[in-house]
TrEMBL record:
Pfam families: Pyridoxal_deC. It comes from Halobacillus alkaliphilus. The modification N6-(pyridoxal phosphate)lysine is found at K321. GO terms for biological process: amino acid metabolic process; carboxylic acid metabolic process. InterPro entries: Aromatic_deC, PyrdxlP-dep_de-COase, PyrdxlP-dep_Trfase, PyrdxlP-dep_Trfase_major, PyrdxlP-dep_Trfase_small, Pyridoxal-P_BS. This is L-2,4-diaminobutyrate decarboxylase. GO terms for molecular function: aromatic-L-amino-acid decarboxylase activity; pyridoxal phosphate binding. GO terms for cellular component: cytoplasm. Keywords: Decarboxylase, Lyase, Pyridoxal phosphate. Its cofactor is pyridoxal 5'-phosphate.
Length: 503
């Protein structure tokens, strides 16, 4: 009796554990077909970016699904169960009118590569867990360092995204400074005596992950000095010089500038050439957060905007933003690989020092993660199936539509555009007809209402403390007409809200 049960259970193992051989191949094919059919149904059966259900309704629909059974359930049954509550209630980022965040519609080659990434399940930490993948990543990193015009000493690693890449830039900048300033090794000895004097400069519009990183690195948020931006939302280089001189005269120790190439709200680019020159003179580390702006690397028409990027000591680039890859996919690039030493720790079971002597490449030495995804594969499959030219023209198309959106909003009465000549593909604006005393409140309601109706998903942000609206145009299939229709919706919603308020 007992043995039969065990055998039956063992047969079930075959159904669920991915296995080599004919049987495994068939199980894999059958089940991926079922999943493909389910996703196809969702794509067929949804025509809005969001169902528009309330939190309560979503929770209600999820409740029975979240019941975890003790015994097996067929895949078909589970797919059927999750299709509505989870799949359909997701935000449909591929919809042409989904234009809120830096959250892209994923390209098919990337989505399909995810299936391979999961099936192969390589881990990028040591060579013996990713014998081919290690070299795919290495070669892609080399390709990327060449594309950004870095010298041959450059290196890098795939990361979970801009946050992790910014963290790595700040970590290396901190540790290199402590080493050169005090001959102090943070890696072994912790923070040095005078760490409270260390300062980093970044734009007041920089991504919050810069401040978060510095805080997590033990320097405290107080170590981050926000630099005022000019009317184009770029760090003012004269202000940078003034602030650094002021800090030095107070006996403080500025050690790095974290510039942004494509701020989250305005897509603005800090003056990279000026900052690079200044950092060189002063011996400061220049990190460039190009999580968003890195997309322009493949643009035919706007690549020139990245001039000076190659002078950064380190940079963050995201593929899951303006390079249309499924989450997560980013890289950290470093102008000189010698600084990677500041990161490396050895573990006998993973990357023993002898491995290095024998020339075995364990990528864990370059990363702050251990087990790590083979994200490089989706970039490779995308670049190869599409070619760089088509991918670049997708980026150019989103730029074109962003410029159209800005000019159309400027043309329509009642709208005020904060960045009328968008540097990248975001447009920040407000609907503020003259008879409205509190446009911030109205715009907040417009954004909410559109989301609740699920017809268009746009973003909100604050400008001088007041709510504004934002389009983030990352979908190359979003057209001028889609933009017009969303603006019409905004006007219609505003009129209904204002009518409602005044009645
Ligand atoms: C999105 C973004 C980040 C954070 O990147 P994640 O990939 O979300 O970790 C950092 N900087 C900028 C400018 C961004 O737009």
């Amino acid at each position: 009796m007992v043995t039969t049960t065990k055998n039956q259970t063992a047969n079930l193992f075959d159904l669920f554990v991915l296995q080599q051989g004919e049987e495994g191949a068939e199980a894999f094919r059958k089940q991926t077909d079922l999943v493909a059919d389910t996703i196809a149904d969702v794509l067929r059966g949804t025509d809005q970016p969001f169902t528009g259900l309330s939190v309560e309704e979503i929770k209600q629909q999820l409740r029975p699904v979240m019941d975890i059974p003790e015994s097996a359930q067929s895949l078909n049954e589970v797919l059927e169960e999750i299709k509505g509550p989870i799949l359909k209630n997701s935000l449909h980022v591929s919809h042409e009118k989904s234009m809120a965040h830096l959250h892209c519609p994923p390209l098919l080659p990337g989505v399909l590569a995810e299936l391979m990434i999961g099936s192969l399940n390589q881990s990028m930490d040591s060579w013996d867990q990713s014998p081919a993948a290690t070299y795919v990543e290495e070669e892609l990193i080399r390709y990327l360092t060449e594309t950004v015009k870095y010298p041959v000493e450059a290196d890098g690693v795939f990361t979970s995204g801009g946050t992790q890449s910014n963290y790595m830039g700040m970590l290396l900048a901190r540790d290199d400074f402590c080493l050169s300033q005090w001959n102090h090794r943070v890696q072994t000895d912790g923070l040095p005596e005078h760490f409270t004097k260390m300062r980093v400069l970044c734009s007041e519009n920089a991504h919050f992950s810069v401040k978060k990183s510095i805080s997590q690195l033990g320097l405290g948020e107080q170590a981050v000095i926000p630099v005022p931006v000019d009317e184009n939302h770029q760090m003012d280089p004269d202000e940078v010089v003034r602030i650094v001189e002021d800090l030095e005269s107070e006996g403080l120790l500025p050690f790095a500038i974290a510039a942004t190439c494509g701020t989250t709200d305005y897509g603005s680019i800090d003056p990279l050439e000026d900052l690079a020159e200044f950092c060189k003179q002063k011996g400061l580390w220049l990190h460039v957060d190009a999580a968003y702006g890195g997309g322009l690397l493949l643009s035919q028409e706007h690549q020139h905007k990245l001039a000076g990027l190659e002078r950064a000591d380190s940079m963050a680039l995201d593929f899951h933003k303006w390079l249309f890859q499924p989450i997560s996919c980013g890289v950290f690039l470093l102008k000189n690989r010698k600084y990677l030493r500041l990161l490396s720790h050895h573990a006998d079971y993973l990357n023993p020092a002898e491995d290095e002597e024998e020339g075995i490449l364990n990528l864990v030495d370059k990363s702050i993660q251990t087990t790590r995804r083979f994200d490089a594969l989706k970039v490779l499959v995308t670049l190869k199936t599409m070619g760089t030219s088509l991918l670049g023209s997708m980026i150019d198309r989103t730029m074109e539509v962003a410029q159209y959106a800005a000019s159309e909003l400027e043309r329509r009465p009642g709208f005020k555009v904060i960045n009328p000549s968008p540097e990248m593909s975001t447009v920040v604006f407000q609907y503020c007809p003259e008879d409205i005393a509190t446009p911030g409140e109205l715009n907040r309601k417009i954004q909410q209402q559109l989301f609740q109706e699920g017809r268009a998903v746009i973003a909100k942000t604050a400008v001088d403390g007041e709510t504004h609206l934002k389009f983030t145009l990352l979908n190359p299939r979003t057209s001028e007409n889609d933009v017009n229709e969303v603006i019409d919706e905004i006007e219609k919603t505003a009129h209904a809200l204002v009518g409602g308020i005044s009645q």
